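Curious: why this fold?
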Amino acid sequence: MLKKYIGEIGLILTAVIWGSGFVTMQLALDNGFTPLQIITMRFFIAAVLINTIFFKQIKANITKEAVKAGSIIGVFLFIAFVVQTIGLVYTTPSKNAFITAANVVIVPFIGFIIYKRKLDKIGIISSITTLVGIGILSLQADFSVNIGDFLTLICAFGFAFHIFFTSEFVQKHHPMVLIGVQFTVTFILSFISQIVMGEGAISGNPAGYVGILYSAIFCTTVAFLMQTICQKKVDGTKTAIILATESVFGTIFSIIILNEVVTVRMILGCIIIFVSIIMAETKFSFLKKKDTKLEPTAIDAANED
């Protein structure tokens, strides 16, 4: 009986791991590491693991075009993670999780701008409701925006471009080559930025290293592999709904582990964003007899947290 739902169970575990990643990144920040140092170490470990585990597949399928494609999405991955991690310095893990998750609503608009792909009514409505949710979550009493929330919104755009181009390139190139290259590019860009910013000296506490190791091994490498395997066993609509709970788990972990205070306003904003994400991901296809073809969504990308 349990074997029948192994795919769903694996995806739930993936969402839980990704959700916990917001807390472990905060742990690293609170224990002496800068955002660039965290990203550098996280993606160095992830790149080594992925390129080692899938060395034969990558070697057999690597091409100049694949390296170029992987580099492009690696640049967007670097931008998204760096801005997201800097945002965590100024905002809470739960708000960071929900605003980041809004990237799935942005993806269809990228397709519309670049390839003139038609926007559907549900996509437009979900985008508007997402903005309302972010407004409730982020706007201060004087209508100013918390800098951390603003940076996280930029991060959502970065992940949206990463998701979009991953969906485009994976049709032409081997997925493991794209992953191996983008992780490597993200590490290289982070390392160069770290040196340029004069952050070569590392003086973090042991707890911070634990957070980085967890993020690299579990949130990046293990979660990606689990998602890839389990997604083959579960239909796209159900996968989208399950993985969208990442932001919910992020909030739960931040409350339990970091003792984050949750207000009614925060709960309302998070619920609106979450419903908008489900709306954008599924197009309410579960209410129809047949699924319609969806725009590329967050489930098409390798990992976002």
Summary: The mean pLDDT is 86.
